[in-house]
Amino acid sequence: MTRDPDVTVVVAVYNTMPYLTECLNSLVRQSIGPERLEVVAVDDGSTDGSGAELDRFTERYPDVVKVIHQPNSGGPAAPSNRALDVATGRFVYFIGADDYLGEEALERMVACADANESDVVVGRMVGTNGRYVHQKLYDGNHPSISLYDSALPFTLANTKLFRRELVEKHGLRFPEDLPVGSDQPFTIEACVRARKISVISDYTCYYAVKRGDASNITYRANHLARLRCTARIMEHTAALIPAGPQRDAVLKRHFDWELSKLLQKDFPALAPDTRRQVCEGVGALVDTYFTDGLRDGTGVKRRVRFGLARRGAVEELTRAIAEETEHGAPPFLLEGDRAFAVYPGFRDAAVGLDERYYEVLGETVAGRLSAGTRLESADWEQHGEELALTVKLRVGVTGDTASAVVALAQGAMPQSADKPGARKLPKDAPRPKRTGTLTAGTAEDGGTLLTARIPLAAARAKRGVRLYADVAGSTYEIPVRTEGQPLPLARRWGSTAPHRVAANPNTKGRLVITTAPLWEPKPSVGARLRRTLSRSKSVGARLRRTLSSSKRK
User: Fold this and answer.
1) Facing residues of 515 across strands?
2) What are phi and psi of 91, to 5 degrees?
3) pTM of the model as a whole
4) Under a CB-based contact definition with an 8 Å cutoff, are residues 415 and 450 in contact?
5) For residue 389, what are the β-bridge partners?
């Protein structure tokens, strides 16, 4: 085996057949070549034939593949550390035994590290078979990025190229007592201590595979195990990075991702004692690390759940999750230019949670307005020559509704340009003009029921119906969804200029009104004559060009 390869690939293996074969094939076929490559695979007590498959590869590629067999350790940390102890490459790269690499992955990453003097190189990673992989980091090739002002905190797997000199200088190893997330402390510390971190985005280096049986240890871990591991990771991070915006930038990932996953729709089904322990553990981390900056930069849904956990309000937290799972987000309470999401515990003295946790700060208004607005009914209303569409809408707002609802109108955008959801209008955008009349009442589910009468003009037009609302100091445009509600049949109106009108959903399920004359007016004799003369001139011009071309030949 080559004693000074450019890169050592570390593969921790435990019962990953048949995925292991594709993984190993992708390594021995790397364009970097066998003379520059070392593969160290550690069989962590597999029982499914993975060990035999590793032996087959080392027999076939004795100068590239080295295999170590050991009793099962319970996680990937111990076999990864064992491989690091024997690695000889200038760089080390870690790959999951059920994943595989693009053919040029190692060659490109080593070249990038050498060209930029990088200690860490992140190659583009994608998911297969339904595996989710965060993509925001891969918006371009970057010779140098920071852990603190990029999407790197959301890409903390160890599936990266690390300069081995950095690893050994700082004694970086994987904590063997963490069954889940043991790669994060290693990756975070490497990135904190690295001179330079680079990103390759123009080539897919890594394919992350979700196994058909979801047997990966991450999927098997229970709530309390994941909570303990996340707490350890956050403690390790806090020891490396002083309190302040940089630490917040890294820990935001753990609040938005790991801790949020503990407070999802499966939480109410946990045993009462487990719910209590999860609530206490999350609350302790919130109390220690959830700064005001993190609080205000977190969506209201997560923020309320963290706040209730911090207050030990297990029942209110359980109810908030269960009710949102079953009925969707609660309506906004509008008070002047402030808006609150009325989750359980809001302004409840017994809970004692600061109302700032419930305040909507603009981060999730658009999606919630869109989800909370739906068409209840629609019908035609005619008075003489005037026709109007009368619609009833349920809107997920309460409180100062009269000042919040700006208008209900036919939007200017055609059907093909209709937006899939609500959008925030720029501050310098002109305020939309109200079309027709609008009245508000209280809906049975706690929202607001709007009744609007939209007059229709005799014209040829296709326009989407949109609601405009002021929430938390900003104006939002909300296309009206039909959601399978029966719509009125096409209608004819007008005696001097007869028109037909229809109300239909477009391809995105948004309400669109289409008007058109029953017949187009016939052109006058003069107009027909002008069109005939114009066509004659065009024919003559083409004939002259043809004759001119023939003469030149």
Assistant:
1) 461, 501
2) -125, 155
3) 0.81
4) no
5) 380, 454
